[in-house]
Amino acid sequence: MTAMLGVLLNLMLGLSRVLLAMGRRGDAPPLFAKVSAAGSPAPAVLLAGAAIAGFALLGDVKIARSFSAFTVLIYYAVTNLAALRLPRDKRLYSPLFAAGGLAGCLFLAFWVERSVWLTGLGLIAGGLLWHALARRLWPRATFGPPT
Description:
about 70% helix; globular; disordered C terminus; mainly alpha
């Protein structure tokens, strides 16, 4: 129980900081770029907390575990793809490591239930559409110190 609460706290803080960064970059509404006088990105924390609570109310632990595995593997696949795109002078290791990591992550990601990876791919497509829309709604700007 303690470990699960630690994971939830980490998830809420991590996701809220991602939302804060997205607000600062123009990928989310500017509201999420705001930080309180105490240094907390309150709007981002509230939205992340509400989203996590909503997912928790959906129920099944097996689906949550499978969806988590899928998304983490896709995240690492993207990381390996980025490593493959590094210029030769910036690489620390052979691109074979990144190619093997990319192939392994994609192979394992699709071993979860079909409904999980279809939902995950749908969310990725929705995220890409959102990104295209957000660039038009909130032009990218360089923000100064957090306000």
